[in-house]
Automatic annotation (TrEMBL):
Source organism superkingdom: Eukaryota
Domain WRKY: 114-177
Gene Ontology MF term list: DNA-binding transcription factor activity; transcription cis-regulatory region binding
Compartment(s) of residence: Nucleus
Protein name: WRKY domain-containing protein
InterPro entries, per database record: WRKY_dom, WRKY_dom_sf, WRKY_plant
Lineage: Eukaryota, Viridiplantae, Streptophyta, Embryophyta, Tracheophyta
GO cellular component, one term: nucleus
Keywords: DNA-binding, Nucleus, Transcription, Transcription regulation
Main location: nucleus
SMART domains: WRKY
Native species: Rhododendron simsii
Length: 327
DNA sequence: CGGATTTGACCGTA
DNA sequence: TACGGTCAAATCCG
């Protein structure tokens, strides 16, 4: 928990750098042909990026202990009992990050208001198993990305009702999405997602602008972090303020996981979906991703351009001047 | 009929 | 050996 600061510094730099890239993209996208959804998504992403950066500055490290709420970090809190979620009423939403030695994963608890709170997180999932878990009152369901075979997406998730409160489901995400699922598609729900399936690859080739799954995780610490006040915000974006008082709009609670699997630190918009294989090699060692980012980008789709860290100069003295991005 | 779900079997790990 | 995770055949569903 107490760290030298190297990790968060790097994260901070990367966050800022991502904000830079996103802003540049937004600049390019602002125009008559631009879809409002894309712009809005970029804006939210940018805000989230800076939000995280600010959070890092504000709280220092301990990211592994953070619970992330509404796309922002909050200082460490106990996971159970008296947690904010218990008071958050319907839109209650909380992320919990649990450390795992060999299989880091990121767990989110979602209160189910209707019957479908188990997974409409913007991705399409296919259930592949269910198990009764020892000591648990409810079985655990296993899902993998629908596009596992088509695009080699290795993202999986586990959904299990909470013993303590059946109205809450714990969703544990593992791996990251390497498939392309746009926010417009995702935010339109499953119907859109169904339509999209047939055109997934076309979408990939047509608008390889950015990956709509984004996020932030730290696998080397055995945890994953993430979440944006995502693209599906119906109206007002989060205003980057006050991380303590933010509450989710109702729709957000089922959308905010969109990018849970992505390593935004290294994945930049245009081609940030190429690290799926990384996870296999480095679930518990982020350094492997860092040291050999391009050696494992053997996506089955074969036509993805992957971001090369070589292209990124993580200058410690990175200067950030927003004005130049809009010039 | 194709894709998604169910469910028992199988496998790896601790 | 028990348990969690995955596979795959059977079944369901639109």
């Amino acid at each position: 928990m107490e760290q030298t600061g190297g990790w968060e510094q790097e994260t901070l730099i990367n966050e800022l750098h991502q904000g830079y890239e996103l802003t540049k993209q937004l600049k390019h996208h602002i125009g008559p042909l631009t879809s409002p959804e894309s712009c809005e998504f970029l804006v939210h992403k940018i805000i989230s990026t800076y939000d995280r950066a600010l959070s890092i500055l504000k709280f220092g490290d301990s990211a592994g202990e953070f619970q992330q709420v509404a796309g922002t970090f909050e200082p460490p809190q106990p996971l159970t009992g008296g947690s904010p979620m218990s008071e958050a009423s319907d839109q209650c939403h909380k992320d919990a990050y649990k450390k795992r030695k060999t299989s880091p994963r990121w767990t989110e608890q979602v209160r189910v208001c209707s019957g479908k709170g188990t997974g409409d997180d913007g991705f399409t999932w296919r259930k592949y198993g269910q198990k009764d878990i020892l000591g648990a009152n409810f079985p655990r369901a296993y899902y993998r990305c629908t596009h596992r075979h088509v695009q080699g997406c290795l993202a999986t998730k586990q959904v299990q009702k909470s013993d303590a409160d059946p109205s809450i489901v714990e969703i544990t995400y593992r791996g990251r999405h390497t498939c392309i699922q746009s926010p417009a598609l995702a935010s339109s729900g499953k119907e859109f997602a169904k339509q999209k399936k047939c055109h997934l690859l076309e979408e990939n080739q047509r608008i390889p602008l950015f990956n709509f799954g984004t996020g932030f995780k730290t696998e080397d610490m055995g945890i994953m972090e993430e979440t944006f006040p995502s693209f599906s915000f119906p109206s007002s974006p989060s205003k980057t303020q006050n991380v303590e008082t933010i509450s989710f709009p109702e729709p957000l609670k089922e959308k905010n996981l969109l990018g849970s699997e992505f390593l935004s630190v290294f994945e930049f918009p245009i081609d940030n979906f190429g690290f799926g294989e990384n996870l296999q090699h480095s679930e518990s060692d982020l350094s492997e991703i860092i040291s050999a980012p391009t050696s494992v980008t053997n996506s089955p789709t074969g036509n993805l351009d992957f971001f090369s860290l070589d292209q990124v100069d993580f200058d410690p003295n990175f200067q950030f001047d927003a004005s130049e991005f809009f010039s």
